[in-house]
Amino acid sequence: MKKRVFSGIKPSGSLHLGNYLGAIRNWVADQDKCENIFCVVDQHAITVDYEPAALRQNVRELVGLYLACGLDPAPCALFVQSHVPEHTELAWLFNCVTPMGWLQRMTQFKEKSDDLREQVSAGLFTYPTLMAADILLYQTEEVPVGDDQKQHVELARDIAQRFNHLFGETFVLPEPVIRKVAARVMGLDDPSKKMSKSTTSDSHGIGLLDPPALIRKKLSRATTDSQREIVFDRERPGVFNLLTIFQALSGQSQEEIEAHFAGKGYAQLKGDLADLVVATLEPIQARYREITSAPEQIDQILAQGVTRLRPLVEATMTRVRCAMGLR
Ligand code: TYM
């Protein structure tokens, strides 16, 4: 039996190398071994300020990138969260069984609400119950994500467990699946912060659609340190981050990479890494241009995703509504 896998990305800005290495690339690598469900989580993107037209555009771009990175609509159901209204229905039901204290402990909420202060929406606070609904609606076994989403997936598991305890066995308990290499790619300008879609600095992240010259420029400016040796050392976060990206893209071992760079300088590291990043992204960008030139086909793939998932959605929701006394 194939494991059922669910994951999603928020269409809140341009996708970056962290999203690729921490998430999409791993989904693509395992898609033939699993029963796959991948979502564009548009309702999570509206928990902070946003522009409706930009959101619409970001959703299209993200679906195009899912396909361009190699997700195949035959083994994968691909869809947009808001096209399946049961996500928000289930999220409401989970809001009613999730203690406030569990949500108050979420580190992402704490970080974001510190930045936003009194502008924080109630939706940002209950973000994790919607994420739990995404995962649990499909009776998901595994959730492949980057390291920053681990706490949210664990919360989904806790909610499933609490629901099963209160209302009887209903949900499969999901597990986060996090790769060892590049589960947290850091910002090029500041390797103490994870690479993120929302940062405005021009030299922070590498966008999957960045042209080669821009990629080279950003990497040439990446923060390093005043030492010389090019080795994997977590105490030197700038160099460690560049080497980790190199490791993830080349598939070489740390020893091989250190041997390759022995006696060489940071300019060489940045140049070789830029070659590798460009060689990885160029074919993705070419496929992206081809795929997005036929938007009707993308709409069709998304509609098929929803149709395929319908029976699963109805089976879960019927059980949930009955268990909770709503039918
Ligand atoms: P999001 O959109 O921030 O990120 C999408 C995926 O990319 C991973 N990721 C990273 N991996 C490595 N290094 C980084 N710097 C980096 N930044 C992001 C994330 O871990 C994630 O796997 N809440 C989620 C979206 C979501 C979801 C879900 C995920 C909603 N419902 C259900 C899984 C299952 C989010 O905002 O991810």
Q: Identify the CATH homologous superfamily of the largest domain.
A: HUPs
Associated small molecules: tryptophanyl-5'AMP
The total of helices stands at 14
What's the CATH topology label of the largest domain? Rossmann fold
Task: Please write out the topology.
Blueprint: E1 3-9, H1 17-30, E2 34-40, H2 42-45, H3 52-68, E3 76-80, H4 86-95, H5 100-104, H6 107-116, H7 122-125, H8 127-137, E4 142-144, H9 150-167, E5 175-177, H10 212-220, H11 237-250, H12 254-261, H13 266-292, H14 295-323
Parallel strand pairs: 1-2, 2-3, 4-5
The protein binds tryptophanyl-5'AMP (TYM).
Tryptophanyl-5'AMP binds next to strand 1, helix 1 and helix 8.
